Recover the amino acids of this structure.
């Protein structure tokens, strides 16, 4: 049993961080911590500290793949949010342009570019539909 | 058509057509036996053939390197009277008449048989593919006459070609290290994260490119004017001068580039093919292709590469203001977006519970990206509602529900991990020889799947079979024992596997019996000398062989091999003569290497030496066990305690190019080179030297000249790749066990050879044991001491 704890010590630590995060949002832990530290502590600061710790554990577990993935994920999320918050007209127009370019590229025997435009068209349509359904429910 | 084929043209065409048809018939009827076989080997068997068609090319042209890499087809009936000249390779010799030769090995053949004392015979033909750059196929004509025989021979050709390609590297760690970074990048490019990222980047790029057209098209109730179109191309009066210059310069460069690419397309594919232009442009951007084309003198691609780089840079510079503008707009939108308060309450705990679920049940190395994504989404929600967080309240029921769910997830995840630990790994099974080829010969490189064992594989025959360094089948022996070299005893039947040179040297230092066993009576490319810098000329009685100019002629002319065999303190007790007075040494040490020049091209441009020596390090552990802590069988490169007792020794390596080798001037005439021998400074009493890429057979003698003394080194057996360094076969007791000694870290694998009713042995059992112990994984080599040993026949 102890060998299991040793083997998965980082995983256990990560689970503990998520659990603490949950407790942080369910209970006013920041007030208790504030009393101990004799200063005002915000929920978001504790969350930030826990997240940084969690990220470091993930970096230690998944090594270079995680380090390389992190900025990529930030950029991907940034582009998604930008698309989600953009005017829906732009999204659908871009989808239409991609749709129109796909057969043109196929005629020009640029198959890979045609595939890319087809993918773009599909993803933009998905983004447009998601925006139509969820935008007003999520954002003010 | 009718108009085009007027009488004049018709008159001209008829004779040309007639001559062409006549020429075709003429050539096909003039085909000789040699030309026939050249065609057969080229078209039916897939060899690259050196042809002497019509251009009076001779064997001398071939020897001069005219047909580099191509096979020269010869008929034994028409081989020159003087015989085959050394250096002729690669060659396909079709034996249609009795023929014998001493080159490249001694062999005899006629139209039905081929025989050789060497073990190169494969299903009736000889395959000579030695380390000495000889590539020969000797084939009796009978194998090529009937369709059945020809088809069977073709299968063996394929099998032998595959066996030749099997990697024979011993040091897998080095190979893995060298490929690790590139492989990591290649593997990473296939991950979901990278694919998502590339889609995000291309989407963002499209937005940068098209944001003007999108604005233009999305304008409602407004006609598109000329100024709008100008604005679309970013040409307006407010445009700075430098930007205008870059804009028009880029347009000009693109036009020139399109003209250039169109002309290349017309030249290469006789028309403007956009697909070809695109693939050519992308090819030119690939640095790998550029390096290849530059090395073959293709500088045009390099010019195109720089041209493309300039155009792309200019385009990026032009797009930079737009990109900044869009980025600013995106940041503004994201930072000013406000999440509805009622949305914040539930997603936060739900996202945390999902993260807990993934962290508890899925391997982090596979799910790290998902956890990071969850963290980023959580961070976005939390920092979008910093001030509202304190006002989100959960009822007692909700709190209990969330905490219970979290505890349940973590508990179940823990139980699963405990179960996984206790349950044995579920292995799949696959065939040892996984290819569908009709004929398979050894060596065979096996790619093993993850958590996969081998199906039953029964083997018989009179040759031993090895898997990497492990002996898994041996004829005439009742038991096989694979042991670490540290347990070496010179008794009974045994094999000593080749290994990493550092491990071999460590073992030589630690085991005197082994050192004596590995000494070679003939010169090789791996030898040991007394450390020159350390001891000056104080050779004691061990390494001194003779003195020049008669000085010190009374000194004993000692036979190195004998000396080492007889002295107990030669290898281990090396500090005895340390304090002897050092005589005057006027000259720098030199090395004199005599190459046997049995072949003209030794295949090296420079002679590089690797020096190996013991480096003694202070051991702070005081009394802790030093040797044999690595792995289960020891064999680490730390040599253990020397006579002083408190020092730990390690093998250190240094490399140096001794001299540039201009090849032998004449075959069979030994050639001597004498150059400075700059050995590393070391406290070690002995220095091991390996001449890289030089075959043992190419060395006739090596002498070290230190001042007025000539030192003859002690040669050791040397080999590259998998192989047997040394062996001993006791034939008087046929059912005795055989021990296979392995250098470095090893697993002790022992088993009895029990044949089934078909007199075959199932080698899957020892192989599966090695797989389960983690000794064999990913890729391993199955090989035998007989090269091209068939394991599957058509």
């Amino acid at each position: 049993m102890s060998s299991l704890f040793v083997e998965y010590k980082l995983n256990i630590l990560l689970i503990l961080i998520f659990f603490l995060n949950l407790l942080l949002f369910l209970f006013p832990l920041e007030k208790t911590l504030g009393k101990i530290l004799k200063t005002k502590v915000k929920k978001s600061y504790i969350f930030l500290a826990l997240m940084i710790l969690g990220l470091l554990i993930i970096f230690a577990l998944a090594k270079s793949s995680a380090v390389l993935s992190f900025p990529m994920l930030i950029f991907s999320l940034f582009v998604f949010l930008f698309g989600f918050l953009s005017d829906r007209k732009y999204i659908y127009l871009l989808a239409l342009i991609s749709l129109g370019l796909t057969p043109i590229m196929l005629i020009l025997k640029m198959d890979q570019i045609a595939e890319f435009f087809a993918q773009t068209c599909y993803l933009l349509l998905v983004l447009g539909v998601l925006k139509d359904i969820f935008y007003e429910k999520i954002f003010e | 058509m009718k108009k085009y084929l007027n009488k004049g043209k018709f008159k001209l065409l008829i004779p040309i057509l007639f001559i062409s048809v006549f020429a075709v018939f003429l050539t096909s009827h003039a085909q000789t036996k040699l030309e026939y076989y050249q065609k057969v080997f080229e078209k039916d068997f897939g060899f690259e053939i050196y042809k002497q068609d019509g251009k009076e090319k001779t064997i001398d042209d071939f020897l001069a390197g005219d047909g580099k890499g191509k096979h020269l087809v010869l008929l034994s009936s028409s081989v020159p009277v003087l015989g085959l000249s050394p250096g002729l390779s690669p060659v396909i010799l079709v034996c249609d008449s009795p023929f014998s030769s001493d080159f490249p090995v001694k062999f005899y053949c006629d139209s039905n048989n081929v025989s050789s004392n060497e073990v190169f015979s494969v299903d009736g033909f000889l395959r000579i593919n030695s380390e000495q750059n000889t590539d020969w196929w000797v084939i009796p004509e009978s194998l090529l006459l009937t369709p059945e025989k020809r088809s069977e021979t073709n299968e063996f050709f394929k099998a032998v070609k595959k066996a030749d390609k099997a990697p024979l590297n011993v040091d897998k760690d080095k190979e893995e290290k060298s490929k690790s970074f590139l492989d990591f990048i290649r593997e990473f490019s296939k991950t979901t994260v990278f694919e998502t990222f590339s889609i995000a980047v291309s989407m963002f790029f499209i937005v940068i490119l098209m944001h003007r057209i999108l604005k233009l098209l999305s304008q409602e109730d407004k006609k598109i004017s000329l100024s709008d179109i100008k604005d679309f191309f970013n040409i307006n009066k407010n445009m700075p001068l430098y930007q205008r210059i870059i804009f028009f310069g880029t347009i000009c460069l693109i036009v020139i580039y399109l003209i250039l690419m169109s002309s290349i397309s017309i030249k290469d594919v006789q028309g403007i093919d956009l697909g070809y232009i695109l693939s050519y442009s992308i090819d030119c951007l690939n640095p790998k292709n550029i390096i290849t084309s530059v090395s073959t003198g293709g500088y045009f691609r390099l010019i195109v590469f720089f041209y493309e780089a300039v155009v792309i840079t200019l385009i990026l510079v032009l797009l930079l203001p737009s990109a900044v503008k869009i980025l600013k707009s995106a940041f503004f939108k994201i930072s000013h977006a406000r999440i509805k308060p009622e949305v914040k309450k539930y997603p936060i705990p739900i996202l945390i519970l999902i993260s807990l679920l993934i962290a508890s049940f899925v391997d982090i190395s596979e799910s790290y990206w998902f956890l990071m994504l969850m963290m980023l989404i959580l961070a976005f929600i939390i920092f979008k509602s910093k001030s509202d967080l304190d006002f989100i309240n959960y009822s007692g029921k909700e709190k209990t529900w969330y905490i219970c769910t979290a505890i349940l997830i973590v508990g179940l995840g823990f139980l699963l991990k405990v179960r996984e630990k206790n349950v044995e790994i579920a292995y799949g099974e696959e065939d040892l020889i996984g290819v569908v080829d009709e004929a398979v010969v050894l060596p065979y490189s096996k790619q093993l799947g993850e958590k996969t064992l081998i199906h039953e594989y029964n083997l018989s025959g009179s040759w031993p079979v090895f898997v990497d360094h492990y002996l898994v089948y041996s004829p005439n022996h009742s038991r096989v024992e694979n042991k670490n070299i540290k347990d070496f005893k010179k008794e009974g039947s045994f094999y000593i596997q080749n290994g990493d040179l550092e491990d071999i040297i460590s073992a030589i230092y630690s085991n005197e019996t082994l050192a004596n066993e590995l000494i070679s009576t003939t010169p090789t490319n791996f030898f040991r000398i007394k450390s020159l810098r350390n001891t000056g000329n104080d050779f004691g009685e061990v390494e001194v062989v003779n003195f020049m100019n008669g000085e010190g002629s009374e000194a004993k002319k000692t036979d190195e091999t004998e000396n080492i065999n007889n002295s107990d303190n030669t290898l281990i007790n090396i500090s005895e003569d340390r304090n002897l007075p050092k005589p005057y040494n006027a000259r720098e040490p030199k090395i004199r290497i005599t190459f046997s020049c049995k072949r003209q091209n030794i295949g090296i441009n420079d002679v590089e030496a690797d020096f190996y020596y013991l480096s003694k390090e202070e051991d702070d552990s005081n009394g802790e066990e030093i040797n044999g802590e690595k792995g289960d069988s020891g064999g680490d490169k730390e040599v253990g305690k020397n006579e002083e007792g408190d020092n730990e020794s390690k093998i250190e390596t240094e490399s140096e190019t001794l001299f540039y080798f201009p090849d032998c001037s004449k075959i069979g005439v030994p050639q001597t080179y004498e150059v400075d021998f700059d050995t590393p400074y070391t406290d070690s009493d002995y220095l091991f030297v390996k001449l890289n890429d030089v075959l043992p057979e190419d060395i006739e003698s090596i002498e070290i000249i230190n001042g007025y003394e000539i030192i003859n080194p002690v040669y050791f057996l040397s080999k590259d790749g998998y192989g047997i360094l040394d062996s001993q076969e006791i034939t008087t007791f046929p059912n005795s066990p055989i021990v296979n000694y392995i250098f470095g870290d090893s697993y002790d694998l022992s088993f009895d050879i029990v044949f089934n009713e078909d007199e075959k042995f199932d080698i899957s059992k020892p192989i599966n044991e090695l797989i389960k112990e983690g000794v064999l994984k990913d890729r391993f080599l199955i090989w035998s001491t007989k090269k091209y040993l068939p394991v599957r026949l058509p």
